[in-house]
Amino acid sequence: MIAMQALAVISVAYVLFLFAVAFFAERAARRGRGAWLRAPVIYTLSLSIYCTAWTFYGAVGTAVRGGFEYLTIYLGPSLVLIGWFWILRRLVRIGRSQRITSVADLISSRYGKSNLLGVGVTVLSVIAATPYIALQLQSVVLSVDAFRHADPAAPVVADSQTMTAFWVAAGLAVFTVIFGTRNLDANERHHGVVTAIAVEAIVKLAALLAVGIFVVWGLMGGVTETLARIDASALGEWQVSGGRWAGLTFLSAAAFLCLPRMFQVMVVENDSDAQLRMASWAFPLYLMLMSLFIVPIAVAGLEILPAGANPDLFVLTLPLASGQEGLAVLSFLGGFSSATSMVIVAAIALSTMVSNHIVMPIWLRLREGTASFSGDVRKVVLRSRRLSIAGVLLLGYLYYSVSGGGAALSAIGLVSFTGVAQVLPAMLGGIFWRGATRAGALAGLSVGFVIWMYTLFLPSFGAGTLLPVNLFDQGPLGIAWLRPQALFGIEGLDALLHTVLWSLSLNAVVFISVSLLSFPQPLERLQGAQFVTTDHVGGGARSWSSSAAQAEDLMVMTQRILGAREAQDLFLTEAQRQGLSGSLPDPTPDFLEVLEKRLSGAVGAATAHAMVGQIVGGAAVSVQDLMAVADETAQMMEYSARLEAQSQELTRTARQLREANEKLTRLSVQKDAFLSQISHELRTPMTSIRAFSEILRDSADMRPSDQTRYASIIHDEALRLTRLLDDLLDLSVLENGQVNLNLRHGMLADVLDRAAAAASAEETGPLTIRRRSDNEEVLLYTDIDRLSQVFINLIANARKYCDAPDPVLEIRVRGDVGRVVIDFIDNGSGVAPDAQDVIFEKFSRVGEQKAGGAGLGLAISRQIMVRLGGTISYLPGQGGAAFRVVLPTDLALAAQ
Amino acid sequence: MAGHVLVIEDEPNIIEAISFILSRDGWRVDTHSNGVDAVDVVRAKAPDVVILDVMLPGRSGYDILRDLRDDPATSAVPVLMLTARGQSRDRELAERAGVSRFMTKPFSNSEVLDAVRALIPT
Amino acid sequence: MSAEGPARRARPLFVARETYRRRRLRDAARALPVLGLLLWMVPLLWPLNTEAVSASGALVFLFTVWAGLVIVAGALVSAMNATDRGAAVPDPLADEDDEP
């Protein structure tokens, strides 16, 4: 008989070995040499946590008690994996794209990031998992006892059992805290844990196969002999009820999808489709090998071991009884591995759920109102997750020590399976049916949960423990059709099938009906669209609108959750993607979406949403309001309208650019033309000056009259140059708006008098000016000098260009509301229609006469009138040339 | 060698200056100050050299020059072109139109004289 | 939701040989669990009590089906991997869930 000390040493060594494996895997991943950690085979092996101590020890027990029924527990998951293309592929992709952290997160996130649903699934999971964890502790205790007592049927010492259970639970808590909460991001792989459980998967498979091979070839004498002895045994005939065969296959398939620990390794830890592809055939193979030797071991145990031996421990006691101590130790390690790997992953999964859906929301609620996230959220999250792990294990331990570990192992397992399977309708509805609503999911889950509690979970403690005995006989308050194990008066059903049937069918019916009847919130619909059409949606649906969120606040918060470096990297990447040079991106809806998804990898969708919401404020609500009005088509229309608006904006911008470009080109052409004109206007007088001054210089024998004449030409051209320069400067000043107006009061008649006099003095030539002085009694408040400059120019033009034999200029003044209109009309031939547009341009000269000016007069006049708040324009159809000057009477206002 | 020069220019003072310079050197000078009928005038007077301004009232000097070059009767007559705009583009335009000599105002008297002398076919 | 709309409408009626193969592999992957379920539910037809099927026969049947499913599933996956690797241009609709 192997000494207890030796067993203890071997166990401790094995545990240390697992710690080392986890540690090195973690370090390899950290150093970037962890590609092998993502190998599909590791993923496949990690799925083996499905095979707990319940399988390792309990399957033989089930086979002894219920024949082939034990197989159903493996057929269901095998079908799920072989049919990966139906459900798992989608589930895994959603898990990756939405950064789902747990099954509760999946449900919560899908149904509008509802934390209530998250809490519901978490509570359900914890209740269902606690007995299961207790079961694992019990199996370890029982297997230790099997060694302690050579005779497994001997009575056990309760105290030492409890101690063993306690130390196992404590050890598991330490391991899980160390390797399960290294990364904050629950969506990232726990490489250490996954690698350790992969090793454990090999150990337990090897152990079970070794025992099986020993039994078949060592004890039974070969395959044929074994089959014959099976037929001869109590298990010799097919005695499984059809209902249980089909029902349990379905139940195990459902539980496989919904168990938090399975969801953890299958969906949360998954990072490629390749992993799933391999698992689709390799995991059924693993399950097949695990269940291959169960019946032979059961038959051999029944034959060899004394009657009354616990069939749940045949795997261990058979080698012990045969004196194969090495095999027994291997078997013990296999059972130990089965139990511990399940507990570790379950603790991680449950602690993530508890922390993200219960602890963090409460913490956030408590801190609501405080301006920012002042504490280190990272620490809070990690601490809450660690406490949750300890709490989950403590619960398991308490359950074990209170219940005393009486019930047969597999019974607990199936009760637990039925509990978690209640999530199935909401899960499948959530990923395949866009019409599934939060209200439906909540109602379905509640109904399923209540029925499960009432008809299976509470009664599983035994009639009279938690539920009074007479409840089972007469129903609550004597209502017979509500008896826990005969709902609606249907008796005679197997208790488990009864619960599976009623809970899941009513759950599904209520889920579907309430979904059909209720109308989803906008956020639910967005999430539903993302989940159901996960392959198509790359982020088309947004739940944030543009908002006044402060990028800096978001940064502060993100740093405290993801850590400084990771947060800064994220923000920098996003800023660069937005084309910004700084390190803070604009809080666009897209960015908020990305940020929220990243945060939800750490704290779950609902909490992340709430956190971002706290900073962004009511922005999400406005989207809700917006979208609430919109139905399916309106959503599409809104989206396409947005696209259209964007493209319109693009077109508009392009047009503006084109216009600006054309304007620049035009300006450039104008500038060239202007320079050309200036050059011409300056060079022309200069040519005369130069030519005549050379003539004067070179010709000594010139007549005095010629000399005088040439000198006066030089003089005139010099004056012309000066005038030109004056005009140019004047125009430049006016155009740049640098002119200071000398505003004062004056009568219009006086201004006209002065202008007429000045124009006559300058030019000789007959021009009769006709005025009606009574109309001219208008008081002006303006720059009188500038105004008379305009008038002088107009009168001089008439004098110069009026080609009538008897030129007459008529000046008509007409008062109007707030303005005065002054027309200058001569009796000449006027300005040709095609020239009327250009006469106000610089250097435009109409007609062939040399007028001595540079053609800047009207251009200057127009600039002056603009400054004075009035206009000057050509008035066609008046017989001769006609110009209209419009002047506001109160310039003080108009000038500003 | 009493060559015949036709000056087509719209600035009276410049016409007077050029006429004076050329006459003093012994040239016979005719003047014209309008662009519109300049081609006809050249054809009618058949000068030995034409001095042509670019900016003429009614018609640009380039157009006139192109017409002269297109007409076999006048295609060979040397044309000295004067411009006050003096941008490189103007020289290009003039050369493309078939100018014999191109000068920018203001010019020195001797320059004009030399140019006309050089252009006269001997 | 986004540009998928037109793409989906423009889904070709006939596809190249490789794409065709890939689609049929998916069909097979979808059909396999149905076959497995049917075979594994055969025990429902077995009589109980009188003339019960022998345990060894039942075991052999169930595990043969199991092994067969594993082999076919493995073959399907390796065929899928091979066509995926062989495809120079990935099927644009490869990731699209075919509507039932």
Provide a quick synopsis of the model.
The complex is a heterotrimer of chains A (about 900), B (about 120) and C (about 100). Chain A is mostly helical and about 900 residues long.
Question: Helices and strands in order, then pairings?
Answer:
The complex is a heterotrimer of chains A (896), B (122) and C (100).
Chain A: H1 4-30, H2 40-46, H3 53-66, H4 72-82, H5 88-97, H6 103-110, H7 115-148, H8 158-180, H9 191-220, H10 223-232, H11 242-258, H12 260-268, H13 273-292, H14 294-304, H15 314-321, H16 325-367, H17 377-403, H18 409-421, H19 424-432, H20 438-457, H21 469-474, H22 495-517, H23 522-532, H24 551-562, H25 564-577, H26 589-603, H27 605-616, H28 619-629, H29 632-698, H30 704-735, E1 743-747, H31 748-762, E2 768-771, E3 779-783, H32 784-801, E4 808-816, E5 819-826, H33 833-836, H34 857-867, E6 871-874, E7 882-888, H35 891-895
Chain B: E1 4-8, H1 12-24, E2 28-32, H2 38-45, E3 49-53, H3 61-70, E4 79-83, H4 88-97, E5 101-104, H5 109-119
Parallel strand pairs in B: 1-2, 1-3, 3-4, 4-5
Chain C: H1 4-9, H2 17-40, H3 55-86
Helix pairs in contact in C: 2-3
